[in-house]
Design brief:
The structure is a homodimer of 395-residue chains. With 395 residues, chain A is an alpha/beta fold. Chain A folds into two domains: 29-186, Amidase signature (AS) enzymes (Alpha-Beta Complex), CATH 3.90.1300; 199-394, Amidase signature (AS) domain (Amidase signature (AS) enzymes). Chain A contains twelve helices and ten strands. In chain A, a hairpin with a 2-residue loop joins β9 and β10. The N and C termini of chain A lie far apart (41 Å).
Chain lengths: 395, 395
């Protein structure tokens, strides 16, 4: 009998992690992706050598502390894909957290344990990180609400990096009202909120990436959003081409991942899991010219998307190309799926703009997320839109 | 650039591990297989979940403490094959320690990191454990002196078990004189030493397991022993058949290994490395009737071997079937080699009698151990024989 059928948690010893006796999150329990330091425990990054080197941390990451100070109780560290460099929801050393909404399908990653813990109801919410989709992908796959905030909005101090100019701190809940409660603590108010009347936009190029049956599964819920927020004007969100976006994103991510972990990998030559090893090897070969071109592209893309959205534009778009792949799929099939996913995930990644995934659709009996992408800094406003949408669905 | 080209050590944080300022082992540095507790560090058993669960130990295993009290300095924990249930010298999570005497060949295991550390000269000696050959195999493969002591002679308190009725604590050095210095500390004197004139015995059935070219490589050094200790009388050491010995050994080892680790494996379903996973799965299916038959057989075999050796008989025998397999060999080839090795290693394993491996031969440019097996409790006497033999070779 598994102690944790969700395979969500790292089996660290129990240590006291004090939290405030009252506060806006009192009574809630949360999990923390094992990239964040929690005093009294090690931080593994899902990598055995990193775990061995970690020692016991003496400080708690500020974002975790903020949740404790708001009265939430720490329930445990959750399994992360190895060094967070994967979207497969599987760790060669610490196992594959189980998708609570579709157990025969991958949970997605790298915030796999956090998504598994929330989707199984083991915790009320859980912290994750999103560099290339590591909150949005598992949120879509596991039927959860998940946000990739504006880059820099939620502190990643005291957390292991993957690619710092892309890394963000997000979280998962099963429903929107609770998501909003956590948002009040982690986001506070927007300095420049969205106006009460937004301009809903439909990036036809992104929707065009979907297979017809996936677009069909999302159509009714997209229609709900239009009924609520107004008809979505068609726009082209991508810049140059999805291939250009994909490669520039990967060059930035790869170079930064190698700057983060390359020294560790060269020093210890740790046995890395399937896919992870290949991605780091690829990352080590990204060239300076590719990085320079990607940096220049990112500036132009950000300006393009900022102009497109203005102060009131919100993209209504699918989070992922489809429901989660089956656990039985091959590593090659997962890699293909990942490469397709990056094409739509990289809009938020490259721009740094916030994107929310909402568990409002399904296909083949498995969850399928739909998302909203807003101008930078409108994170809390984005959550407020989701609150209205969820209320309309409930009503 | 690897921090540790031998890949011998676990990368734990440096912690102070005090040792006596003087003593019989002053000035020596030693490594400790990561099955033994050392205060201030975790104990992984080469398994990431075990590492995560370990926490930081507060007590040092008595055998390690004995070495510290004798003035030796702790140099670090060494990589063990996963849960010590392997002889391949490779850990899917922590890498493959490098054989310092034959880098293209496996180090052997499960005391792989200890053998690698000593064979590279990174430490003077290192602690290992031997259940089915985990000291003798890497000693033979890496050109080291290694002892499997009489079962129970050297304390395994504060160390992770594999199969308690078979587990023993041994150590490695590069030469016999230093081996004897450590023996004085860890063994002390024998209560019933071997007489000054031993009766050297040649187990022709064990020698018959060797390929002709291996027997040929060992012949000159066996002749040295005969010149020194007297002509070896031919005997049959095995009981019933090598197949019977092999299966009874494996049934005891498998049942005990499953009793030790089965609950952990059932609870956490940890991803186990190649070979290790299959062996535990096999172990879980060993039947009560097989265990009972093996226990009865062991009693009879022990009586048979005790009668054969009396108080003065010492078997002169090969440690392993051949030099270490190549690192490039397949898992299946390694499994075949392991199964052949168990046939000769299990004499000491099933009887609990001490066996010493000496690095006095080679083949194909790689080390090949030759061994002595004595009646129980004659461990220090066995080392004394090796001292005479080594001195004769030097002189």
């Amino acid at each position: 009998m598994l102690h944790d059928p969700a395979r969500a948690f790292m089996p660290y010893p129990e240590v006291p992690v004090p939290h405030a006796p009252s506060g806006p999150l009192a009574g809630l329990r949360f999990g923390v992706k094992d990239l964040f330091d929690v005093a009294g425990l090690p931080t593994s990054g899902g990598q055995p050598f990193m775990l061995a080197m970690s020692g016991v941390k003496t400080r708690t990451a500020p974002t975790v502390q903020r949740l404790l100070d708001a009265g939430a109780a720490f329930a445990g560290k959750t399994v992360t894909d190895e060094l967070a460099f994967s979207m497969n929801g599987s760790n060669a050393h610490f196992g594959a957290p189980v998708n609570g909404a579709a157990p025969d399908r991958i949970s997605g990653g790298s915030s796999s344990g956090s998504a598994a813990a929330v989707s199984h109801g083991l915790v009320d919410f859980a912290l994750g990180t999103d560099t290339g989709g590591s909150v949005r992908a598992p949120a879509s796959h596991c039927g959860l609400v998940g946000l990739r905030p504006t880059h820099g909005r939620v502190s990643l101090e005291g957390a292991l990096d993957l690619a710092p100019s892309l890394d963000t701190c997000g979280w998962f809940t099963r429903d929107v009202p609770l998501f909003a409660r956590v948002a009040d603590v982690l986001l506070g108010d927007d300095a420049r909120p969205l106006p009460s009347r937004i301009r809903l936009l439909r990036p036809t190029d992104v929707w065009g990436l979907l297979a017809p049956e996936v677009a069909e599964a999302l159509a009714p819920v997209a229609a709900q959003a239009e009924a609520l927020f107004g008809a979505a004007a068609p726009v082209e969100a991508a810049f140059e081409s999805f291939d250009a976006m994909y490669w520039h994103f990967r060059h930035i991510q790869g170079r930064e991942a190698w700057m983060t972990d390359g020294d560790f990998i060269r020093r210890f030559a740790p046995p890395l899991g399937p896919g992870v090893a290949e991605r780091f090897a690829w990352s080590s070969r990204v060239g300076d010219d590719q990085v320079a071109a990607a940096a220049a592209f990112r500036v132009r893309f950000r300006a393009h998307l900022a102009a497109l959205l203005g102060d009131d534009g919100v993209l209504l778009m699918p989070t992922m190309p489809d429901v989660a792949p089956l656990r039985s799929d091959t590593e090659a099939a997962l890699e293909d799926y990942r490469n397709a996913a990056i094409r739509m995930l990289c809009l938020s990644g490259l721009s740094g703009f916030p994107q929310l995934s909402l568990p409002f659709a399904s296909r083949l009996g498995a969850p399928l997320g739909i998302g909203l992408l807003a101008p930078p800094g409108r994170d809390r406003s984005l959550v407020a839109l989701a609150e209205r949408w969820a209320a309309a669905r409930a009503g």
